[in-house]
Structure prediction request, 123 residues.
Amino acid sequence: MPGDGIGPAGKEPVASLAVRVVIDLSGATAALRDPGEFTRFSVALEGDGHLAEVVQRCGLGRLAADGEHVVVDPAAVRALAGPAADDGWDEGFAGMCAYAAGKGWVEPDGGVLAHIEPSDQAG
Prediction:
């Protein structure tokens, strides 16, 4: 149900090039996959838990009002990138954020909208 913030239970991780941020709802953690891939930006969910709480607790940002996006703080993405966040990474990430802003996918506070990927592609 959109907006309830409940993640799927017992689903396998999504293995998709579109996934940038993976949120482990059970462990209340977030990780960045393929930090150098700037062509898509989305969130995948693993485990079971309350999405809005986990997003806030791990410092990632917040659940958007539509329940279909996470508003991700760019500083949190940089932190998740770790050693990959060199000058070249910063340039690529800035370009991605500028593209997102041009499409209306950046909130007034600077948070970037990330679509929540379905965890069960087969349905």
Observations:
- Strands lie at 21-24, 29-32, 42-46, 61-63, 69-72, 112-116.
- Residues 21-116 form one domain.
- The first strand starts at residue 21 and ends at 24.
- The helical segments are 51-57, 74-81, 87-102.
